[in-house]
Specification:
Chain B: Pfam families: ABC_tran (PF00005). The complex is a heterodimer. By secondary structure, chain A is mostly helical. Chain A is 78% helix and 0% strand. Chain A has 14 helices and no strands. The chains are: A mainly alpha, B alpha/beta.
Chain lengths: 317, 254
């Protein structure tokens, strides 16, 4: 498809322009202070964008559903519970909160272990439908959410302010060491997943057709679920819960590129998320001068788009 | 040759397929017939490895089908189920190209393209190969899926009720194509059918199931008679011979 190539090139150019704008506008010669900080922020946004776009598209393919995000597995809720529980038990001055490195690894490990446990118990039987896994994920997620709310009600109001900080994703104080660690994880995970993209294409034909064509359906689904859990866990531990965002970029990419090829739709979703994150952050810093965080705007626009998708799906069926 | 040995599948407490022994003869059309819930589709799913059996085995050239690598098996046996829902937009050609996946892993060679062209030609889909599946009628879509299975180029082609929701014209069209697959290309076709007249006119052999057991198994002419059909369907079905075809007149059966 030549037209898709043109689209991708245009999006790449747009991203380049936005990145240059974001990094160099109003720099005022502050090459030693502002420049490295802005570059780290761009890198953090790129990582988050890539991780969420990739995880969401693969997750939607294996669940045969275009209005789900991996957050349905309860990873976001678990992240919030971990943060709230740490502040509740140890206080906001605890090293577990103050050391971003420690906090990152605790959240990451908790989420990955949770996902693996969930899959382990769910995939014992052969050919268990994935909807069962999703339902259990929703229930566990709701349970964790209620537990979090319970702790938040009991918590000291001053401490609650700290919890609230964690509730919204923010790129404003990303630790530069963490970005490099996250980069390693994301690149490694995607490299593993990239070899399976052709098989994901076949998965869109449904379980029976995929197996007929010699694809190890259960194996691919399992690998992809674990990979997307690791990606979501990494991005959430890095900047906070922002998975709703994946829904928007994945669907924009399907509409824009209109192909079954995952190499294209995933690339498209990644490009859309880079545009949205870097462009959005630029608007927030230079237009709203930090008066709001990006995730508030993303959730606002994402919510509207979600309603549009629901209406469209209900009309077509 | 595919040999089914003592195959059993249990859902809950019900034995859906109950110690079934069947041999699929190469180079023939074998029809699975029987009342609703007889276990025809389940049997087909187990033969094609879509479903695991609870006991018993399926042998392909005297080795257990479970021993095959997924990819190797997909080059020898293909299956098409009834419901084929998708949430992506595919053109007919893209769908048929998927049939080459076991060989090319998604990177089509010129050889693969040739097979796709042949399959499209075989199913009379060349002119509309770039239309999207969701714009097609049920019959055209069914033909597109069968073209995918033809492109897969397997010795065995298993089809689960391919005539479902098709009108007479399209049903006949598809049955004639299956006949050609066997007569011209030497394939082996196994098909689950509801309309016994299609089974009677087009198949070489018939396997009749009832309550998970094989009640009749043999050449078509041995099965299509009033006595056998009574055992299978509990109906009194007169047979009329028209142009050398045995037609079961079941519409007004007492």
């Amino acid at each position: 498809m030549r037209s898709n190539k043109v689209k991708i090139i245009i999006m790449l150019l747009l991203i380049a322009v936005l990145t240059v704008l974001y990094v160099f506008q109003d720099l005022n010669g502050s090459y030693h202070y502002a420049l490295p900080r802005r570059l780290i922020k761009v890198l953090a946004m790129a990582l988050t964008g890539v991780a969420i776009a990739y995880a969401t598209v693969t997750f939607q393919t294996i669940s045969h559903n275009r209005i789900l995000t991996p957050s349905i597995m309860g990873l976001d809720s678990l992240y919030m519970l971990v943060q709230t529980a740490i502040i509740f038990i140890f206080g906001s001055m605890s090293v577990l909160i103050l050391s971003q490195m420690l906090n990152f690894f605790i959240s990451l490990i908790a989420m990955v272990v949770f996902a693996l446990l969930l899959y382990h118990f769910m995939f014992k039987g052969d050919g268990q439908p994935i909807y069962f896994l999703l339902l259990v994920g929703i229930i566990v997620g709701t349970f964790l959410g209620s537990l979090t709310t319970f702790l938040q009600v009991l918590i000291d109001p001053n401490e609650f302010m700290n919890v609230q900080d964690k509730m919204f994703a923010s790129f404003n104080n990303v630790n530069s060491d963490l970005v490099w660690i996250a980069l390693l994880i994301v690149v490694g995970t995607i490299a593993i997943g990239w070899t399976k993209l052709k098989e994901l294409d076949v998965l869109t034909l449904g379980r029976d057709n995929a197996r007929n064509l010699g694809v190890n359906y259960d194996g691919v689904v399992r690998t992809m679920l674990v990979l997307s859990a690791i990606l979501i866990a990494t991005s959430t531990a890095l900047v906070g819960p922002i998975t709703f965002f994946g829904l928007i970029v994945a669907n924009l990419s399907y509409q824009f590129f209109n192909t079954y090829k995952h190499s294209v739709t995933i690339t498209g979703a990644i490009l859309f998320s880079l545009i949205a994150l870097i462009g959005g952050q630029w608007v927030i810093e230079r237009v709203f001068s930090f008066s709001t965080t990006l995730s508030v705007i993303i959730n606002f626009i994402g919510g509207i788009y979600f309603i549009y998708l629901l209406l469209k799906e209900s009309r077509s069926s | 040759m595919i040999a089914v040995k003592e195959l059993t599948k249990v859902f809950g407490k019900k034995k859906v397929v109950d110690t079934v022994n069947v041999t699929i003869h190469p180079g023939k059309i074998t029809s699975f017939i029987g009342p609703n819930g007889a276990g025809k589709s389940t049997l087909l799913s187990m033969v094609s490895r879509l479903m695991n059996a609870d006991s018993g085995e399926v042998l392909l050239d005297s080795s257990d089908v479970k021993a095959f690598k997924s990819n190797e098996f997909a080059k020898r046996v293909s299956i098409l189920k009834q419901s084929n829902f998708m949430n992506v937009r595919l053109t007919i050609r893209e769908l048929v190209s998927f049939g080459r996946f076991p060989y090319s892993k998604g990177r089509l060679t010129s050889e693969d393209e040739k097979m796709v062209d042949q399959a499209l030609d075989y199913m009379n889909l060349v002119e509309m190969q770039d239309s999207f599946l969701d714009e097609l009628s049920g019959g055209q879509r069914q033909r597109a899926f069968i073209a995918m299975v033809i492109a897969q180029d397997t010795e065995y082609v298993l089809l689960d009720e391919p005539l479902n929701n098709l009108d007479m014209k399209h049903s006949v069209q598809i049955m004639r194509i299956l006949r050609r697959l066997v007569d011209d290309l030497g394939k082996t076709v196994v098909i689950v059918l509801h309309d016994i007249n299609f089974a009677s006119v087009y198949s070489d052999r018939i396997v009749a199931l009832k309550d998970g057991r094989v009640v009749k198994d043999g050449p078509t002419n041995d099965i299509i008679n009033t006595e056998s059909l009574k055992d299978i369907y509990d109906m009194n079905i007169p047979i009329q011979e028209i142009n050398d075809c045995r037609i079961c007149v079941y519409f007004d059966s007492k």
